[in-house]
Amino acid sequence: MRGYFSTGRAATCAMLAGAIIAGAPAWSPAARAATPAAPVDTVDQLRYPPLPDVRIPEPTRVVLDNGLTILFLEDHELPIVSVSARIRTGSRLEPADKVGLAELTGAVMRSGGTAAMTGDQLDDYLEGRAARIETSIGVASGTAAMSCLREDFADVLTVFGDVLRHPRFDADKLAIAKNRAIADIARQNDNPGRVADREFAKLIYGKESPYARVPSYDTINGIVRRDLADWHAAYVHPRRVILGLVGDFDTEQALQLVTRVFGNWPRGPTVDDPDVPYPTATTRGVYIVPKHDMTQAKIVIGHMGLTRRHPDYYALVILNQILSGSFGSRLFSNIRSQQGLAYDVHGGIGFGWDVPPPTHFSMSTKLDTVRAGLDSLLEEVRKVMDAAPPTEEEVDNAKTSLLNSFVFSVDAPGKVLEQLLTHAYFGYPSDWLAVFRAGIERTTAQQVRKAARAQLKPEQFVTLVVGPRDGVAPAMARDDTVTEIDIAIPDPSSP
User: Fold this and answer.
1) Three-class DSSP category at 139
2) Distances in Å between the alpha carbon of 356 and those of 227, 246, 274?
3) Which residue among 8, 192, 249, 378 is least packed, with the fewest CB closer than 10 Å?
4) Quick one: which of 205, 291, 215, 308 has its CA closest to 465?
């Protein structure tokens, strides 16, 4: 009886997966066709037909006379309309003495209200319509988003346009945002994982790099309302915005509405964004961050990563899946399950859209197993490069997992549109999403092995350990040079 239900459950999962992938109802003939032809005794005996083509909807693309690019993707399943914007800006463009300016600008664009409506009035307006408007600015881009019921689309889009075009930058709301930023600085050393990520980025990029800088009391205190207004005037205008609409609308009517709201928005000044350099290689080093309120240690090792444009991209996506993509992955299985050295362990090659993030391997471990944990991480990297390269079976399983999960990244028009906006913003081909599956399918085990040998460079590894000095230092004694990093938070300068 137990075997019958196990087989039945597996068959049902297979049927549902096939139905989702094919876009068919779960109990349709197409779903039943995905069921194994006969009962089986073990999971390994299950056989599935080839994956059908995944149909990715294509948006309608329009560019207004003022340079605003718009993508329209209709979705009539629910009476909801969502709008997303990518704004060509980012904290990497901040001056060194104003770190935190971009994030504050992104927050107060929304919280501070518009020329026609205070922030509190805007809150009440949206709450009364079950709508939302949000804005933010990160390292490499700014975002703005709204969603509302179809019947409120015209009105809410008009307000959304005001948030983008005419933010009030209310002084009181700026003061609140600055207080939150200052409170965040005061807590920046509370979480060991956050400390490790921050300090590791400084070691990879350089502590003065815009990709690793963090706000201080002085940089936040030095920001005034005029700085936010100037930032907005420089970077938020039509030629620097890509707008995406998805939901229950007619494209022609939506275009008329968008044109009415944004069509008379002046093109804005020409801004030549400076190149923000980053290192292409990493200098090996060993570092400790003494943090005495910990009973464990946080370990991170790695070097500079790659962008998705790299020729080895697909091979390395597969490699990452083998290393850390599931509970059966090498890092989890060997370091956690077999050796018992860590509860959480993960890592792989880092990929960015236009700037490489760090390639890193990390774990938390007991103080008396710091050396063993470090050695195990390094051993797994070296094994996958040489002693035990990815097998045909591992590569096949990784590819199957990636291909089976791919459908869940494109199973809703809203998910598709968000990815297409990202691709357009960073200048990737319009079919980048559509060709991902083919890129994974055509990659061979030999290519994965070659990419592992070429792109993992243990001789460049930066090693960072966060934990109490007395517990961590003995484990690092065999390293020639160990540098301590001071994470004390500087007090604000006297006025």
Assistant:
1) coil
2) 29, 30, 18
3) 8
4) 291
Helical packing angle, 153-165 and 119-127, nearest 10°: 160
Q: How far apart are CA 486 and CA 272, in angstroms?
A: 37
Amino acid type, 321: Q
DSSP H or E stretch at residue 14: helix 2-22
Three-class SS of residue 209?
coil
CA atoms within 13 A on the CB side of 349: 26
What is the number of H-type helices and E-type strands within the chain? 18, 14
Q: Which residues of 30-40 are buried (b: 16+ CB within 10 A; e: fewer)?
A: bbeebbbeeeb
Query: Exposed, middle or buried: residue 357 (CB in 10 Å: 0-12, 13-18, 19+)?
Result: buried
Cβ atoms of residues 231 and 102 within 8 Å: yes
Of 390, 303, 310, the closest CA to residue 347 belongs to 303
Which position has the token pair 């087989």?
Answer: 7
Which tokens hold the place of 96?
Answer: 């060194």
Nearest by Cα to 202 from 289, 136, 101: 289
Q: What are phi and psi of 14, to 5 degrees?
A: -60, -40
pTM of the model: 0.88
12-65 pLDDT tens trace: 344 344 433 344 433 333 443 444 457 888 877 777 777 677 788 999 999 999
Residue from 438, 351, 453 nearest 399 by CA: 438
Q: How far is CA 427 from CA 219, 242, 268, in A?
A: 32, 12, 21
Distance from chain centroid for Cα 369: 31
Q: In this predicted model, what pLDDT tens digit does every residue of 235-250 receive, in sequence order?
A: 999 999 999 999 999 9
Is 57 strand, coil or helix?
coil
Calculate Rg over the CA atoms of the chain. Answer: 26
pLDDT in tens, 259-284: 999 999 999 888 789 889 999 889 99
Picking from 112, 109, 153, 148, the residue whose alpha carbon sits closest to that of residue 132 is: 148
CB 70 within 8 A of CB 258: yes
